[in-house]
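$ run holo --ligand "adenosine-5'-triphosphate" --emit tokens
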Amino acid sequence: MSIPTIIVEQLNKSFGHRQVLDDIGFKVTPGEMVALIGPSGSGKSTLLRHLVGLTCGNRSQGGRVSIMGREVQMGGRLRRASRSQRCRTGYIFQQFNLVGRLSVMTNVLIGRLGSMSRGRALLGRFSADERARARECLARVGLEELADQRANTLSGGQQQRVAIARVLMQDAEIILADEPIASLDPRSAREVMEILERIHREDSRTVVVTLHQVEVARRYCRRAIALKEGRLYFDGPIAELTDGRLQALYENAGLDELRASASTDSAPEPVRVPAMARVQVAHT
Ligand SMILES: Nc1ncnc2c1ncn2[C@@H]1O[C@H](COP(=O)(O)OP(=O)(O)OP(=O)(O)O)[C@@H](O)[C@H]1O
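-- output --
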């Protein structure tokens, strides 16, 4: 059995008096593609941010996050990540986080900064090999011909593909994507998900992606982790996330989310699960 690449144990997070993560624990093995789903405000983005140490858990309640065998945080204290560890985790944001006035090419090359010497990084001096590699990364997301264009002249879908190329340039082994398709039209959303899935499949990258649309999660991910009100509601094969469980997951959510979560095939089963019940399925 492979050693987990992501380990989360007893993670708790409160903002003021509001507990937004409640005793979260799960493991992800190398090469998995996992959908992180749940109603708006259930804690998906907060959880993802904990995985890279952008947010730290509560001190009083312990909690541990480890990535690729190294602790990111423990007992509410961040561990200083090594440079190489930081480079091995790529983060994709809903709003792309590109430098709009720079070229597409430079934005992709930025993915390399973490592995360069400080001097070279400060001067932004990239080698011919690095430029060739950046072109390859752009070709993989279908944007090679836009290399010299300013990033802010691209469509949202194209910008997200540049962000993925930047993660490829970073050579990240784990890709964490926080609602990467939330602000995209359906076609761009499909392109972005297909690229992520291809990278996962062809390069054996571990991908954890937060999604609002359950049908998208079903199409691209084998496993789902669902949060409800900050608690782990489901963790297992996405095929076991039945319509009844989904109804219970989204039962207090807005109408739009319910529609987004509705299955496209059979009619939902009228199964009701108590609001805070956990449906935890052993993950193999
Ligand atoms: N820095 C913060 N300070 C205070 N509250 C916060 C902070 N970050 C998140 N929260 C709160 O934590 C809860 C979970 O937020 P989070 O963004 O993780 O949810 P989410 O499931 O990703 O929601 P969405 O799907 O709408 O993005 C929300 O109630 C949010 O308002």
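-- notes --
Residues 1-88+174-191+204-284 form a domain with the Rossmann fold fold (CATH 3.40.50.300).
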